[in-house]
Structure formats: structure tokens, C-alpha cells
Write a structure and sequence with these properties.
alpha/beta, six-stranded parallel sheet, two-stranded antiparallel ribbon, 13 helices, about 15% strand, globular, binds glycine
Length: about 325
């Protein structure tokens, strides 16, 4: 583990963000977020998109940090979605064994998930996030008004992670999602602020207890074993990350019911919510064998079966190794 500091989380409005004094500091942004703040001279602007999360860009960032003589007391700000947050946090953790890190997540998935909890990384050798460190940000600035301009698909992708987070530990948030779907869809600013903060509370509690994922942190992968496999098999871009996670949540509920772990009424409630938000929860039986093969290749796998995060009900979560036959049944044979 690299950083053992706590993260100071603050809300800011767009105006304060634009006026953020970063002179004499260093920042990393991307082509979508470069105008959200006045970037200090020498900042790096990455091309938006997953391809930017590369070893080469990490090296370029570190080279620039050295060139402009940053010291251990300097600040690096990462302004952007998950890619910018992950790569700038990786650079912050490595340079002089760690300097001050401020993250300003610009997407919903980065606000509710990527920017909190200290996972940093770049993709390497064909594997996602295979090189990285644990290094929590010193400061996390939440500007929920940035969410109003997100493309719809990206917003819905982040919302699936918010639903997952509610299932892990916030019954009130689940009820809000059920009762106020119109306001969620129209991105009511107060509601969004509330959703983001509630998710940060749940995730913050989990990572505070288990920063390096020796136990409970794995629960954050609820829906992800199925979801990652679907994403990998269906082909790039066919399912967004969140759409695949929503589909994976439905499968995890069904698997839990078939193993008599999950309360069937709870599983129906979760699947009904996902459908209320128009996520595709249909089984994809034609992909069964490829999905199973992809799950078996997952680097998190141990033992002979595949390990899944399953729930008895909201807030009661466990990791279970499941035999292939039972998984195949849930995938539709
Ligand atoms: N996104 C999962 C985690 O932070 O552990």
C-alpha cells in the first residue's frame, strides 16, 4: 500500500471549480474536461477515452512532473472521468513516492466509484488496470452540476454503479431510486448531489475498512463478474460498462435465488428497478459458453469454480464459489 492518508471530500459548484487556483501546481485533464478549470501552465491534456490509460501516457506525465520540478509538497489535480482519475493518481503515487493528489471526477461513474478508494492504474500488456497502486486522493472535489452535460448513455452507465452501491448498503437510496425515477432521469441537481454523497458514504465505509481488497471491498464487484464477461464477449462498445453491470446484477440476483442464497422478493425488486430504468436484463443464451470462458479467464478467479458476489438481501453480501453447471443454468443454458 502506498498512501495511508484520508480523503477530504468537498462539494463545489461549477463557478468555484472554474475559479480554482491551480497556479504553480500541475494538472492532468482530457479533451472533454480541459476547460472546466483554468489549467496551470505545463498541464497535460489527454485524448478522452480508454486508450489514454496507457503506460506511455503515465511516463509522459511523470516526465513532465520532473521537467517542471514538482516536489513532494506539490499538488497534482486530475480533472476527468475514470481514465484521468486512475492515471493521474498512479502518477501522483509514484512521483517521489507520493505527492498531494486532488481529484475532480467529471462523470457519474468516477464520482460514485473510481475517484474514491485509492485504486490507481494503467492498462498494460493487454490487461486492464494491471499496473497500479493503492493511493487515495488527499482531496476529492464533487461538482455534481457537471453531470447535467454528460451524454445520456454515459450518465446511465454511471447510474448502474449507483444502483449497485445502494444495494450494498443504503436502503433509503434504493427507495429513492424507485420512487423518483423521473427526477433521476431529468437529472434533478439536488437529487444528484444526494445520490453521489450517499454512494460516497457507502463506498467510503467499505474502503476505510478494507482499502487493499482483502475482504469486504470485493463486494463492490457485485454484478461485475457477469458484466465484465458480457462486455468482453459482446465486443467493444456494444454494451457500456454500466449496461453490462446492470445486466450482471440481474444475473447475480438470479444465481443467488437458484442457490437459495438470495431472498426471491428482493431479487424481483432489484430486477424490476433495473427494468424501470430500461436496462436490458434479458438473458443472452447464445453467448453462454463464451461468457463462461471469459469469466474463467478473469484474473480475480481462484479455485475450480468462478467466484461471485451474491446477496441474501440489501446490505447482506458474500462471495461464493459456484460450479459451472449452476452458472450455465442462469445464463440460459
Ligand atoms: N471499483 C471497485 C473498487 O473500487 O474496488
Amino acid at each position: 500500500m502506498f498512501g495511508n492518508h484520508r480523503t477530504d471530500v468537498k462539494s463545489v459548484d461549477a463557478e468555484s471549480l472554474a475559479g480554482l487556483g491551480l497556479d504553480g501546481q500541475f494538472a492532468v485533464a482530457d479533451t472533454h474536461t480541459k476547460d472546466f478549470v483554468r489549467l496551470p501552465r505545463g498541464s497535460i491534456v489527454l485524448q478522452a477515452g480508454e486508450a489514454a490509460k496507457s503506460w506511455e501516457n503515465l511516463r509522459d506525465i511523470l516526465e513532465k512532473m520532473l521537467e517542471i520540478d514538482l516536489t513532494r509538497g506539490s499538488w497534482l489535480s486530475g480533472i476527468g472521468g475514470g481514465v484521468v482519475c486512475d492515471i493521474s493518481a498512479a502518477a501522483a503515487s509514484l512521483y517521489m513516492r507520493g505527492l498531494n493528489l486532488r481529484l475532480v471526477p467529471s462523470s457519474l461513474v468516477a464520482m460514485v466509484d473510481a475517484a474514491l478508494g485509492g485504486k490507481t492504474g494503467v492498462n498494460f500488456g493487454g490487461y486492464k488496470n494491471i499496473v497500479g497502486t493503492f493511493y487515495p486522493a488527499h482531496e476529492l472535489l464533487i461538482c455534481s452540476s457537471l453531470l447535467t452535460s454528460l451524454p445520456e448513455r454515459e450518465y446511465m452507465s454511471g447510474l448502474a454503479e449507483a444502483i449497485k452501491t445502494a444495494l450494498l448498503g443504503d436502503p433509503e437510496l434504493l427507495t429513492t431510486m424507485e420512487d423518483r425515477s423521473q427526477d433521476v432521469a431529468s437529472r434533478d441537481p439536488e437529487l444528484l448531489e444526494d445520490i453521489v454523497w450517499r454512494c460516497l458514504e457507502v463506498k467510503g465505509g467499505i474502503v476505510e475498512r478494507d482499502l487493499t481488497e482483502t475482504g469486504e471491498r470485493a463486494y463492490l464487484n457485485l454484478g461485475h463478474t457477469f458484466g465484465h464477461a458480457l462486455e468482453a464477449v459482446a465486443g467493444l462498445g456494444r454494451w457500456s460498462h454500466g449496461e453490462a453491470v446492470a445486466w450482471g446484477l440481474a444475473r447475480a440476483m438470479e444465481l443467488g435465488v437458484s442457490l437459495k442464497i438470495t431472498d426471491p422478493a428482493y431479487a424481483s425488486r432489484v430486477i424490476a428497478l433495473l427494468e424501470q430504468y430500461r436496462y436490458d436484463t434479458e438473458r443472452q443464451p447464445e453467448l453462454t459458453s463464451r461468457i463462461l470462458a471469459a469469466m474463467k479467464k478473469d484474473k480475480k478467479r481462484r479455485g475450480s469454480g468462478v467466484r461471485f458476489v451474491l446477496q441474501e438481501t440489501l446490505g447482506s453480501t458474500q462471495v461464493v464459489e459456484v460450479d459451472d453447471d449452476q452458472v450455465i443454468q442462469v445464463l440460459g443454458g
